[in-house]
């Protein structure tokens, strides 16, 4: 059996990650104001319970998916008393998601 030649270059998996800083208390106690979080670039499957970054009114927001429909998502902050989310704005288009939080895990 003939083995392939080694080119001398190691291939690293490309992990398209983004770094975000949490602003406000809407995701307490899971995420605290000022905390850094890491997200993957959108394109992965979304599930209820996932924490996502999405754009609304030209501002990046971090919220948890509470319900999913074909092309829409209903998002809530973990701290309902200080969160502006789907309770005020209704359902959001999934295309607005720019990333899924992968660290820290909630």
Describe the 3D structure.
The protein has one helix and seven strands. With 106 residues, the protein is mainly beta. A seven-stranded antiparallel sheet has the order 1-2-7-3-4-5-6. β3 and β4 (59-68) form a beta hairpin. It is globular and about 65 Å long.
In short, what is this structure?
This protein has 106 residues and is mainly beta.
N→C terminal distance: 47 Å
User: Which structural category do the helix and sheet elements fall into?
Assistant: mainly beta
Number of strands: 7
Q: How would a crystallographer describe the biggest sheet?
A: 7 strands, antiparallel
Q: Strand order, biggest sheet?
A: 1-2-7-3-4-5-6
**Percent in strands:** 35-45%
Could you name the ranges where pLDDT drops below 50 across 5 or more consecutive residues?
Answer: none
- Range of helix content: under 10%
**Helical stretch count?**
1
Compute the gyration radius: what is it?
17 Å
Helix/strand order? EEEEEHEE
Average pLDDT over all residues: 88
Based on Cα principal axes, name the global outline.
globular
